[in-house]
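To the wet lab folks,

You asked to see what we're planning to order before we commit. Fair enough. Below is the target structure as tokens, and below that is the sequence we designed to fit it. If anything looks off to you, flag it before the synthesis order goes out.
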């Protein structure tokens, strides 16, 4: 589950992260409200970036570097249908009726990061497509229910995996949630599934821990592959995937979703 213990944030840091989270979520929703057949993923990214910057923040993903990949150049990752995560916005990628589109966004405000994602239907979609959107969102809600002081990190994965698999969907294993704060990706990694080998690295959740929880569910296999652009990750079998995410702080009484709009 990662090498290090999560950084405990001071109450004032959580307050700043709540501001960052509000900006992040409102900017995601600005893009989500614009989703329709005929709009491009590049245009959705422009909308999100403009919203972030209008609120005095910067896009966390812009210029992000990891693992020798080319620097990321956009404010959002926008993934369509079989794309799981890290889809690159493109003015040539035009949405059509029946697509599902995931918008993943980060904003940095006063040195702290907010990170969230949602999956939206483009017009009328199949019953199965709407179902994977709903179950992914609901699995995030199930994870949030178990997040409180004294719970274990593994309880998050157990909640997501149990809810998803009971409803016929698989859980991505190659990508996971993470700690978040001054950096987009901090310790620990937060798997959306359970494996007994995690137990020797399990931790107790404590007030001040801030985690980005992001279930990624698949219609078919959980296996993934990365496209030649070195960013976009798709389902290995070409079937649908959905992604929902919130940044969440553990409090003395439970937890607080920081990525909410007013």
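Sequence we intend to order:
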């Amino acid at each position: 589950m990662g090498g290090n213990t999560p950084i405990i944030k001071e109450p004032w840091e959580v307050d700043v992260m709540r501001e960052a989270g509000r900006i992040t979520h409102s900017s995601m929703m600005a893009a989500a409200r614009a989703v329709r057949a005929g709009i491009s993923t590049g245009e959705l990214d422009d909308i999100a970036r403009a919203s972030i910057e209008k609120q005095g923040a910067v896009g966390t993903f812009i210029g992000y570097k990891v693992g020798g990949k080319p620097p990321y150049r956009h404010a959002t990752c926008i993934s369509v249908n079989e794309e799981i995560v890290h889809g690159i916005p493109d003015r040539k990628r035009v949405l059509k009726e029946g697509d599902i589109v995931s918008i993943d966004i980060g904003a940095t405000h006063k040195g702290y990061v907010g990170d969230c994602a949602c999956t939206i239907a483009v017009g009328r979609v199949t019953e199965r497509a709407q179902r994977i959107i709903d179950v992914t969102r609901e699995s995030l809600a199930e994870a949030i229910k178990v997040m409180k002081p004294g719970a274990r990190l593994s309880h998050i994965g157990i909640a997501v995996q149990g809810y998803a698999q009971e409803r016929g969907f698989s859980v991505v294993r190659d990508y996971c949630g993470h700690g978040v704060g001054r950096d987009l990706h901090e310790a620990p990694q937060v798997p959306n599934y359970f494996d007994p080998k995690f137990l020797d690295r399990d931790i107790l959740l404590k007030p001040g821990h801030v985690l980005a929880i992001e279930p990624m569910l698949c219609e078919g296999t959980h296996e993934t592959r990365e496209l030649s652009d070195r960013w976009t990750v798709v389902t290995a079998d070409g079937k649908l995937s959905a992604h929902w995410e919130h940044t969440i702080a553990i409090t003395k009484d439970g937890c607080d979703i920081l990525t909410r709009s007013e």
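Structural context that might help your review: The CA atoms of residues 77 and 86 lie 5 Å apart. The first helix runs from residue 11 to 33.

Thanks,
Computational group
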